[in-house]
Amino acid sequence: MLKVNRCFIGRTICCFVCAIAFLGVAMYYRPQAREPKTTERPPDPIHTYTVVLPDNSPVLTRYKVYATREGLIGGTTASGRVIHTEDVFVALPSRKALNKWVCVRYQGKTIRAQVWDVGPWNTIDDYWNYEGVPAAAKGLRIGSMARYGSPKNKAGIDLSDGLWDQFGIKRGLGIVQVEWWFE
């Protein structure tokens, strides 16, 4: 008959039970990926709102932002087009929006335009995918544009000269508030 030390068996069972308990606790309390804490303020309700259209139409998110006039006649846009005085287009601060269509509203008049350029102030600020507030409206330049310092105004969209003129905005007026949305 084999003689087995009771202490050895007791210690073995105890270690086995402890190991199972530890693994169970370790699996239950696995570290979870956590959202980084942010000190940013919540989005400004003045800048975005959602409009639900009847008849199962898609939900449109509209952005109320400041707009400036693009200018740069004779220059080339980020989409490769040479800018002419009568061109109707906009610039949004991210390449993700290039060649998409938007509607822009100013004082009750809505005009459809295509995104041909990137700007103002930033080139990677796709604010419409996040909180709906342009970085420039918070006084920030982000990415490689940060080296140029703070933006000179709070614009979140640039309007071409042709679009500016179609709205009837005076050329001397440097910044206006518009509403825009993707089509």
What is the CATH H-level superfamily? RlpA-like domain
Number of domains: 1
Shape: globular
**Overall pLDDT:** 79
Q: What is the CATH domain class?
A: Mainly Beta
CATH fold naming: Barwin-like endoglucanases
Strand order within the widest sheet?
2-6-3-5-4-7
N-to-C SSE series? HEEEEEEHE
Q: Whole-number radius of gyration?
A: 28 Å
Number of strands: 7
From the coordinates shown, what is the CATH architecture? Beta Barrel
Tally of separate helices: 2
Percent in helix: 10-25%
Q: Give the amount of beta strand, in percent.
A: 25-35%
Which blocks of ≥5 consecutive residues have pLDDT under 50? 21-57
What's the layout of helices and strands?
Blueprint (H helix, E strand, L loop, with lengths): L5 H23 L19 E4 L8 E10 L19 E4 L8 E6 L2 E10 L36 E5 L1 H6 L8 E8 L1
Parallel strand pairs: 2-6, 3-5
Antiparallel strand pairs: 1-2, 2-7, 3-6, 4-5, 4-7
What does this 3D model show about the protein?
The chain is α+β, with helices and mostly antiparallel strands. The protein has a single domain, classed as RlpA-like domain (Barwin-like endoglucanases). The chain contains 2 helices and 7 strands; from the N terminus they run αββββββαβ.
Short description:
The protein has 183 residues and is of the alpha+beta class. The chain has helices at residues 6-28, 161-166, and strands spanning 48-51, 60-69, 89-92, 101-106, 109-118, 155-159, 175-182. It has one domain (48-182): Beta Barrel (Barwin-like endoglucanases), CATH 2.40.40.10.
